[in-house]
Amino acid sequence: MARDPYDVIGVARSASADEIKRAFRKKAKALHPDANPNDPKAQDRFAELNNAYELLSDADKRRQFDRGEIDAEGKPRFAGFEGFGGGRPRGGPGAGAGPHGETIFETFSFGRDGFQRGGGRTGGQPGGPPPMDDFFDILSGMTGGTKGGRGRSPFGDDFSAPPSGEDVTLTIKVPFLDAARGSTQRVVLPTGESVDLKIPPGTRDGHRMRLRGKGKPGSLGRPTGDAYVVVAVEPHPAFKADGKDLRLDLPIALDEAILGAKVRAPTLDGEVELTLPAMTSSGKTFRLRGKGLPADSGAGDLYVTVRIVLPEASADLEGFARILKERRKGDPRDGL
Question: Does residue 29 sit within a domain?
Answer without folding.
Answer: yes
